[in-house]
Each structure stands twice: as structure tokens, then as C-alpha cells.
Amino acid sequence: MTGNVQGGRGSHYAMSMFIIGVLFFIFGFVTWLNGPLTIFVKLAFNLDDVSAFLIPVAFYVSYFVWALPGAAVLKRTGMKRGMALGLFVMAIGAVLFGQFIDWRMYPGALVGLFVIGAGLSLLQTASNPYVSILGPIDSAAQRVAIMGICNKVAGALAPLVFGALVLSGIGDFEAKVKAAPTPQDAARMLDAFVSRVYWPYMVMAAIMAVLAIWVVRSSLPEIKPSGDNREDAAHAGRSIFSFPHLWLGVLCLFIYVGMEVMAGDAIGIYGQALGLPLDAVKHFTSFTMLAMLVGYVAGLVLIPRFISQQSYLAVSAVLGVLFAFGAYATQGYASVAFVAALGFANAMMWPAIFPLAIKRLGSHTEFGSALLIMGIMGGALIPQVFVHLKEHIDFQLAFLLVMVPGYLYILFYGLRGHRVGQQETASVLAADTMQ
């Protein structure tokens, strides 16, 4: 079946939302394992912060590498088969990651994460525009908010599940490793610790393979973005460079993902730098995810009934600045609470940025979506700026200097950047009408 399922009516719409919701849950769970994984590899492989943060680097750089090839694949497979293919690739990456971790080969484990990221880039390149154009584009943030709830529920659960299966008793374990009588004894203890990861990732791989088959056989309708996300007549036939609001949106999404990863994945390292115990730190990512979940519910209620998605984006950016200063001005658990509260500020940014950036792209929607997915690489680079900067200055000041400029740019995009080029189009259309 091909066509747009508009207006939120009909069984196809409800089933489509359910299936995409399941997919958002899956890649939310996988994505937000990176926070506790960073803590895990730091201990398992005796790494410094910079080396441990290669976890998000390998994961998010994959989006940059594979987003454009993924868009080309989607042109051939369609969105439905493309989502299933993305799940299969993720399953392969999970097997690789679990196996290399079990062999205690950190570079190989990073390759596994890179492959998982490749599958996710394909999955997200298809699923984000799919849900954006499943109904009216002006209410897209509301639909993406529903997907965000699925994503962040999974994100809150992931550190808890990983903590229970893998990081249980990590504080005492770290002390035992340090107190081991010989290096050989410490190595044996670490081997047993690392092996805890193997079966959870094998199970995840099996689940993703089964879901891929389910998606292919489901009633999920095929949607053609070029027909459903119509471009203005003044831009018809023009190149992708005719849409400055898209390019500004790519930068905005790049920065936003960096802000999200800093609040969600880096919060563990932040807590450790404050001297907080590992048994508490391992759950900090869940607090950020819970704050994001509250933010999504607020956005679902408020957008577009009481506030537009672009205005909510601007308000969220202001909250981000305020919470970042709050984290800098406090210590201990209070400071961590402000970092976690950034999850609330971040929650509705992706749901607002993505539809605003692809608005009126028409036949360029797949390519524009791929460019936006490439922007996810901000999750790799911005945390690296933080971990390198904190080697030279106070880590709380480093956090502030990374976060505040990012939120100020997001504020610009919410107030002005999303309209750049759109007003010129409106003027051309008005002139054509008068002639």
C-alpha cells in the first residue's frame, strides 16, 4: 500500500503509529546504553575518560558515514523494507559487539558499535520523516513526541536493565580489582566482569532480527515523501541548496544531539568527577531519560494547541541555558540534578527541529532527512570537546562553556533560523499571484 495516512484516522494510521513506536523504543534502548557502557569499558579496559568516550564517537560517527548511503538505499527499498534492513544490520552489530567484548578486544567492540550505528542511521533516516509526514506537517512535533515517549521510556529502562545485569555491585567490584594480590588475579576478575555483557547482546540481536521480519510482514503502509511533503511552487525543481532552513537545521540538530548526549551519556562521568559513588552514578542516565519523558508529555499536551513547535523549541533552549548555569553554580547531587533536568529542556528539540528542517522539501525529503541524520554526529564530537577541555580547566566550567553556546544557537533556530528562505518563497509566490 502506498500513500499518506493523513489526519490520524483509520486502522492503518493506528497500526503505523504502533509499529513505528516499537521501532523508536528499540533504538532508544540501544542508544541510551552508551552512558552505562562508557562507565563499563572505563573499568573493564582500564581507560581514561577520553578513551572511554570513544563509545559515543564510534556510535555517532556511523550516522555521518552511513546516512547518505542509507538515503540511497531507501530510494531503492522504500521506507518499510529500509527499516527492516536497519534492524538486521543492528542485529549484526550487536553480535559483533558482544563477541569482541567477550574477547576483551576494545577496538573490535567499537567496530560493533559502529555497525549498530549504521543500522540505526538507516532506521532513523526512514522512521523520522515517516512519522513526520504520516499526518499534517504542522502537527508533526506532536506525533514525534509520542515516538519520543516510546524512545525515552526505553532510554530510562536501558541503564536500569544494564545496571542490574552487568554493573551490579560495581563499586565493591572496583575496590576488589584494585586490592587484587597480583595482576593475574585482577585480569581474571575483569575477564569474568566483561563476560556479563555477552548474552544480553546476543539476546538483543535475536530480538532485532525477529522485529525485522515482523516489520517486513506487517501492514505498515509505504509512504512516498516526494508526494506527501509537498514543496512550494517557487522551489519546485530547485536544488537542495535552495533550502537554507534545512542547512541551518542540520547544524541545529548537530548541536542538539551533542547537548542530549552530554546530558544523558556524559552525566555518569560528570558524577564521577564530583566524587559520587559508582553504584549511584550508574543510574544517572535514567534520571535524564525520566526528565526527557516528562518533557515529551508536556510537549504532547501543549503542541500545537497552546504553543507552536518553533516557539516551544525557543523556550526549551532558554531552559537549557538556565539549567546549565544551575549545574555550574551547585555541587554534588544538586549539580547532577541540574544536568538531569537538561533532559526536560532537550525533550522537544528533536521533535521540533526535524519537521521544521524538512518542511516543504518535496522530492528532496529523503536527502534532506539523510543530511539531518548526519547531524547526529554531534553526539560524537561535542562530548569529545568536553572531555578534552576538562583536562585543562575545571570540569564544571568546561561543561558550561560547551552547553551554553549550543543552546543559544538552538534558540536562534527556534526564533529565526527555521524561517530563513521561507519568507523569500512566500514573497515569490505572492508576486506570482498578483501577476
In short:
This protein is an all-alpha fold. Helices cover 77% and strands 0% of the residues.
* Average pLDDT reading: 84
Order of helices and strands: HHHHHHHHHHHHHHHHHHHHH
Radius of gyration: 22 Å
Q: What is the tally of helical segments?
A: 21
Low-confidence stretches: 1-9, 428-435
**Overall shape:** globular
What fraction of the residues are assigned to beta strands by DSSP?
under 5%
Sheet of most strands = none
- Tell me the total number of β-strands: 0
End-to-end CA span: 41 Å
Percentage of residues assigned to helices: over 70%
Instruction: Determine the structural class based on helices, strands and strand pairing.
Output: mainly alpha
Q: What report would you give on this structure?
A:
This protein is an all-alpha fold. 77% of the residues lie in helices and 0% in strands. The protein has 21 helices and no strands. The longest helix is centred in the N-terminal third of the chain and has 49 residues.
Question: In terms of topology, how is this protein built?
Answer:
Layout: H1 11-31, H2 34-44, H3 49-52, H4 54-102, H5 106-132, H6 140-165, H7 170-178, H8 183-194, H9 198-217, H10 225-228, H11 244-264, H12 267-273, H13 278-281, H14 284-302, H15 309-329, H16 332-346, H17 349-358, H18 365-374, H19 378-389, H20 395-415, H21 422-434
List keywords for this structure.
21 helices; 77% helix; disordered C terminus; mainly alpha; disordered N terminus; 435 residues
